[in-house]
């Protein structure tokens, strides 16, 4: 039935027409904005941003969509409103002077007003109409119209008149926002949701573990699909921004490009010589294993390639980070000066996870970095439960992947659970594409740093634990070396090298003496051969001599021998 | 009592000739004639013709009777059918007691 209804409607006016709010994220959740030419109810408790949302709707309407607006305030005087939103960067006085925005403060002072007999609110209608016509408004905000109930006694008249007002607004074809204070049991104190039934947005302000998060939910949106979740939103110096979280379809395109890790030896450990562009990398390790240094190397490398880099430091201030990195041969300051690198330092407990995420999202949208570094993610556990952090990371990684941003996270693993070192507490393993672990290799009175690649999706990688050293020139991965007890590090490596060189020398000596022995043997043999040859020659000579003598003898004896036979 | 103080400047805001407005106008005229003895002026403002005036006096409801003078400003909304309330609201002392 409902579908049919909308279909017949849509045949007239295409699909339900929507008015973009211009509020970051809200248009995505509502799939295009608020219903055009209809009133929308925004309700929520005190201080959750209703007025601001209405104001932003109007101001964005003017500045971005060229739609003038009317703001009818039933609570705050015009001057107060102007001051309040000026702190958020909106100059409504100027807009009013340009005749694009009309602000009308409707003051209902109970002490001044006496009621006798029948009346209606035609005066309000006339004022509103006059205001709308004077600027040609397409958008109208009625800020907490329920205040009327406090000022006027006759609730039944008010109700009837409000119903008429909303119909009137619809007929007028303006897109209206009506704000309402949240009631005990119903969405608004006076049950306005009964009258404004096209679109209802609920704002909420919750404090969990002393950290507050603002949330927004679309309770109802007639004739349109919409996001149904609670979405966190942020009020900062640019007003409201909402972050939709539903885009978890995993259908982002991937890049086949490779970006260097910034460390030559580490590049070599990957078969393709670095990380995939747009992939997420986790560097985990115990305290003091140079996670930050490795991450900074990547930041440095990215800046070197003229890529913008966003660095979130939850432990160090920008100055501290640059100073510390200078000590290992990275100078980040020029990149900071050039605006290629932005370092944002804050304590995780500054705001809730959602707010962190929104802030990140905002920065990513504004700065459009090619690489984002978050150092470390393990600190976030202090502001949320494990599942919260995980969901935060899912959304964060998703956000970065969609934007094809290479992300490097560092994570501190607990020292005392070294046996389960392969598991970071956030169990983000399935989320990241590449996982590098740095760890201490302890033994014979010293501590060395070892590095290995746990996984690298879509790329062959070395299976070795490589020792690396950090000196003034930076990080250097040492060649793999194996001793009789396995991998060698530190002084064991040195010792091993020494013994190796001694052995080598020995072997050489041995070899040389062998060679000499052979030479000697050959000489002896050769002299023997010589002697035998001379002996042979003398014997041969002797024999020849004998042969000759015998021949001579035979010559002499020949005739006699014939004679003998004749006889 | 000083005479100037007893001058009443009243404004009746209406929106066209609606029955309620007509009733209100008739009522206030009647009360004024009865109790103010010519020391008054009633101005009728039709907001349909002059909508820009609604904002200045913070008019919401129709009809609204505004007492501009003497100060403070008082407003009475409705068709003014309850005489007692109107007189209290405008702070008019009924003539009968005055004389």
Polypeptide structure, described:
The complex is a heterodimer of chains A (567) and B (99). Chain A is an alpha/beta fold and 567 residues long. Chain A has helices spanning 2-13, 26-29, 50-65, 78-86, 92-97, 122-135, 147-151, 155-172, 264-269, 291-304, 318-326, 333-338, 353-367, 386-402, 490-566; strands spanning 18-19, 34-35, 39-44, 69-73, 101-105, 113-115, 139-143, 175-181, 199-208, 211-221, 230-236, 239-242, 258-259, 275-276, 280-285, 309-313, 341-345, 371-375, 406-412, 434-443, 446-456, 466-471, 474-477, 482-483, 486-487. In chain A, the strands form five sheets. Chain A has a nine-stranded mixed sheet with strand order 5-4-7-8-3-9-10-11-12, sandwiched between helices. A nine-stranded mixed sheet of chain A has the order 17-16-18-19-15-20-21-22-23, with helices on both faces. In chain A, helix 13 packs parallel to helix 14. The longest helix of chain A is centred in the C-terminal third of the chain and has 77 residues, at 490-566. The radius of gyration of chain A is 44 Å and the shape is rod-shaped. Mean pLDDT of chain A is 82; it is low at 1-13 and 418-423. Chain B has helices at residues 19-35, 53-56, 83-90, 95-98; strands at residues 8-14, 40-46, 64-69, 74-77. Chain B has four helices and four strands; from the N terminus they run βαβαββαα. Chain B is globular. By secondary structure, chain B is an alpha+beta fold. Chains A and B meet through strand 6 and helix 6 of A and helix 1, strand 4 and helix 3 of B. Strand 6 (113-115) of chain A pairs parallel with strand 4 (74-77) of chain B, so a sheet runs across the interface.
Q: Can you describe this structure in just a few lines?
A:
The complex is a heterodimer of chains A (567) and B (99). Chain A has 567 residues and is α/β, with parallel strands linked by helices.
Please give a handful of descriptors for the protein shown.
heterodimer, A: 567 residues, nine-stranded mixed beta sheet, disordered N terminus, B: 99 residues, alpha+beta, four-stranded mixed beta sheet
